[in-house]
Amino acid sequence: MRLNEYRILWILVFFDLPTETKKDRKLYTKFRKDLMEDGFAMFQFSIYLRHCSSRENADVHIKRVKKALPPKGHVGILTVTDKQFGMIELFYGKDEKKLPDTPQQLELF
């Protein structure tokens, strides 16, 4: 199947984790670190995103996020197509910002 803006996906992970105790902060840090090691980038403080070339690829990364879930807190996982993500409007204050570039990925079959 050829790649197009409806097949390419973005995974967004939203989370609100407790940080009251030293153990909570350690679990929070480990979860963030696991996301970044799996190729997620920070979009906002508690929102990370990752570009995936297909549904199958996205499923692999979603499983990794689920495996890394901490015992407490709220985590949401949202998958949108590249076409949907491309319609986002970003603002810093009242100034509109350009969308982040789609990462270039090399795939070997």
TrEMBL record:
Homodimer, forms a heterotetramer with a Cas1 homodimer. Signal peptide: none annotated. Its cofactor is Mg(2+). Its EC number is 3.1.-.-. Mg(2+) binds at D16. InterPro entries: CRISPR_associated_Cas2, Virulence_VapD/CRISPR_Cas2. Keywords: Antiviral defense, Endonuclease, Hydrolase, Magnesium, Metal-binding, Nuclease. Belongs to the CRISPR-associated endoribonuclease Cas2 protein family. One of its GO terms (molecular function) is hydrolase activity. GO terms for biological process: defense response to virus; maintenance of CRISPR repeat elements. NCBIfam families: cas2. CRISPR (clustered regularly interspaced short palindromic repeat), is an adaptive immune system that provides protection against mobile genetic elements (viruses, transposable elements and conjugative plasmids). CRISPR clusters contain sequences complementary to antecedent mobile elements and target invading nucleic acids. CRISPR clusters are transcribed and processed into CRISPR RNA (crRNA). Functions as a ssRNA-specific endoribonuclease. Involved in the integration of spacer DNA into the CRISPR cassette. It comes from Hufsiella arboris. The keyword Nuclease applies. This is CRISPR-associated endoribonuclease Cas2. It holds the Pfam family CRISPR_Cas2. It comes from the Bacteria.
